[in-house]
User: What shape does this take?
Amino acid sequence: MSGLITDAFRLGWGALYWNLRKTIYILRGRRQSCPCHIASDSGRAYETGCEAILGYRSPARFRRLCPLLTTRADGNWVCSVNRDSVRPFWGRAAVFLGTSSMLLIALLAVPGFGLLRTIGYEISVRQVIWPPAWNEFPVVQAEFYQKRAQNANARGRPADALLLLSTAYELNPRNYATGIQLAQLRQVTQPALSDQTYARLLADHPALREDTAQAWFRALLARGDFKTIQRVAGERLLHSGTAPSPAWLQAYLHATRQLGDPAALDALLAEAALPAALIGPLRLERDLYRLDRASRIAALADAAQRERDAFLCYHWSRYLLREDGGAGRVITALQRTDSPLGTREKVALQLAALALSGQTIERTRLVTRLLAQPTQPAVCELLSSHLTAHPDPELFSLYIEKLTREPLPPGDARYPQLLALYAAAGSHRDAARLTLIADWISVATGREYRLLPVVQASFMRFPAETRLEAILPLLQPMPLETTYALFSRFSPPPPFAP
Assistant: This one.
């Protein structure tokens, strides 16, 4: 058996070595001695021994590469042609090497395939035995690590899941789903790496740039990274075409207000690619920093009355509410029959105006009317956001009693709404309701949310010992309206300063 293996390796090497030497011999005009003939022999047919078969256990095996080898009557192995007729047999070499390679691959592939499948790799036979398919193995590896990450996450081991997902993404950076999941997992404990991953996804997947930017924005908002929000939202506004997204405009304006940064507005207005529909609103936003209080109130009231765009009308009205005496103007404006605002926006503005103007009875009546309706996620989000920005223990108690009697309908939408409700309880610093809602969240998700006690302790220490940005990443995915309400309550923007 050992002789067979040794001869097989000699044949593999000899297929290239002897054919190459014969080829060189012919190209040099056969002037030197034949490389495969024994030099001391005559060089004539049937009189010359073969140099190439020395060391073989069975010289007959070399005939697979060179059919010129034969035996004489006395049993000696000799060449059957004269030295001038010696030639290479590349075709035989190719067939031998190809056949041997495929056989070797097959012999290694069977146990290799079984081992990989046993480990858990979803690999096919083609990917094991076909060399051009071997470059697909990193993708198979990435899928293996991704599944392990999902299992680790389901078992409550986020650190393991993060490490496994990172490995999967490095193996296959073209997998968008892995990349976006990795970026989201990193945003709490590794924010810098999270930002790098989002930036890489934006560059590598241009067709999904809008989805990536939205996910990145939510992560940045939770961390309070308004400078990066300005950059990301500004880029989306410049490439939004003729119909800019209200969501990106809101993100940009909110970041600018939190930073108190009118210079960024000048820079954006100077961009040639800025859609024409944004020039007027951005100029007014910039001018608010330059006007005195009376002029600012007049400009906002005029803009809110003339504006035909629903988002901008709502935006200017919200600004007006922050000014002394602005609540009354907003309540009056809401009575207009030609307002572009929808019912939800009108109710949200009315609730805020009543709270800021101290009209407790009217506010209670409006909340009571909302609670008299069947429990709906949209209404819950509206009330949670309002009571987060404008706490009222009595109204919050009515709200909780309503949800205790008539819980939110089951489904995926319930989780973000419960997080919004949790934020409202935190805004009231109501420890008993925070614990109650944490139990509701555990029932809705089917597992214990271990970080909620940390969030609860942080809410109870606001604002002296805790920053909002320290806990917002732990309350995701929370509705954007509630996130904005939390900033309004615990981290309001600086006042306009002319």
Observations:
- Residues 401-498 form one domain.
- Residues 90-119 form the longest helix (30 residues).
- The chain has a mean pLDDT of 86.
- Strands lie at 69-71, 77-79.
